[in-house]
Amino acid sequence: MKIAVCEDNTKDRQKLCKQLKKALERREVEAGLEEFATAEELLHAARKTYYSIFFLDILLPGMTGMDAALKLRRQGNYAPMVFTTVTNDFLAQSYSVWAAHYLVKPIEDKDVDEALDRSFQALKGEEKTLEIMVSRHSEYVPYSDIYYISGNNRNCLIHTRTGNYNPYCSVQQMDEELEDSRFLHVHRSHVINLDHVVAVLRDRVAMRDDALLPIRRGTAAEVRRAWENRRFEVVSGRE
After folding, report:
1. Which among 135, 137, 192, 236 is placed 20 to 30 Å from 89, CA to CA?
2. 63-110 confidence digits (pLDDT tens)
3. Nearest by Cα to 76 from 197, 214, 210, 232
4. What is the pLDDT of residues 193-238, one digit of tens each?
5. 72 in helix, strand or coil?
6. Measured between alpha carbons, how far is 13 from 3 in angstroms, rounded to an integer?
7. Helix (H, G, I), strand (E, B) or coil at 26
8. What is the pTM of this model?
9. Residue 197's closest CA among 164, 162, 226?
């Protein structure tokens, strides 16, 4: 597990990381903490690294923590987010990105404990993972981390935010295993994650990782409708 801590004030960031380490030790949870001073640095890292939990200062230089959270959500990242700030002024706005908790500085140890408890509860209840066998051991890939799956009748390649996996199973088997509204079997050799679709063209679908994938002939309208329905589910909180 990796936890991202984004805070421009070095003293506050170091204090929060220290509190998090102690809270994680008390729970006997192994997690790596990665620190960022700006939202831009965090977003760049999140393109390749999956973070299970985000701790975001709202009043950051440049892009705000709230704007970064909104961007992550629009990119299909549903990891728990905890906001840290000096005022309650943004509390109502935090609900729009489904924040797990909202901490007002100075942050006490008990506040960090509560934030972690809420985040872990959200992870258990919301984040689904795909278990696959790779090189004789199990790997657990978060659904939200999967861009698309490509392959044939014998094996497939799972393209994710953090790299590719090559389990020995077919695309059809993967499609049946996932059973989730965000995934759509658009072509005999491709299953896509609708949360990572950028655009639906006449015979292709553009993905967030710049891939252009084929879709079955004459199904563009159907794929576009599924994409729009999925976005409505996310925005309305019906997923």
Report:
1. 236
2. 999 999 999 988 778 789 999 999 888 887 777 788 889 999 999 999
3. 197
4. 998 898 999 999 999 888 999 999 999 999 999 998 887 776 554 5
5. helix
6. 13
7. helix
8. 0.56
9. 226
